[in-house]
Amino acid sequence: MKVILKQDLENLGESGDVVDVKPGYARNFLLPRGLAYEASDANLERIERERREAEERARRDYLEARRRASQLEDKVVVFNENAGEEGKLFGSVTGSDIAERLNEQGGLDFEVDRRTVLLEEPLKTVGVSNVEIRLHADVTVEVEVRVERGEG
Fold first, then answer.
1. Residue pair 141/130 in contact by the 8 Å Cβ criterion
2. For the sheet containing 117-118, what is the strand order?
3. pTM given for the model
4. 115 DSSP 8-state letter
5. CB 119 within 8 Å of CB 95
6. Which fold has domain 2-66?
C-alpha cells in the first residue's frame, strides 16, 4: 500500500515521501497515528502544492532576512559602562543588551530578537567586538559593539 509520510520516520523516509508499506502497517499504525496519508491522487496533489508553498515561503523568508541584514550592516553599538582600572567591567554586556540597544537606536523597520544575537559569553571588558546576528539559517551579519569606560 502506498502512503505519503507526514513527518520524518526513521527507517521509512522523510516528510512528503511516497513509500510502499504493508497494508496492516498503514491501517493499524501510520494512518491512525496521523503519521501518513493514503497516497490518493488528491493527496499527492495536496502534498505537491504544500511543498511548493513551503519552498516559496522559504525563499521569501531568505530574501526578507537579506533585506534586514542590509539595514544592520555598518551598525555600531556603543555602551558606556563602569569599569575597573584594567578595563574589566563591573557588570557585563549581554546579547539582550545588544538587541535592546539596536532597537533603541532606530533606523530599523523590524525588532532585533535577543535570540538572534550570537554571543557565546557576555562581554566583560572594555574594547571593540564584532558580534554576529543570525537573521536566517543562511544569513548572518556582523555588528560592531564598542564597550567604553564611562558612567554606566
1. no
2. 76-81, 139-149, 127-136, 117-118
3. 0.72
4. G
5. yes
6. Ribosomal Protein L9; domain 1 (3.40.5)
* The pLDDT of residue 151 is above 80: no
3-state secondary structure of 31: coil
Which tens digits make up the pLDDT trace of 63-115? 999 999 999 998 999 999 999 888 899 999 999 999 999 999 878 899 999 99
H helix and E strand count, the chain: 3, 9
Name the DSSP letter for residue 108: -
> 101-133, pLDDT tens digit by residue?
999 987 889 999 999 999 999 999 999 999 999
Q: Domain segments of the chain: what residues?
A: 2-66, 69-149
- Cβ–Cβ under 8 Å, residues 85 and 115: no
**Is 3.40.50.10950 the CATH classification of the domain at 69-149?**
no
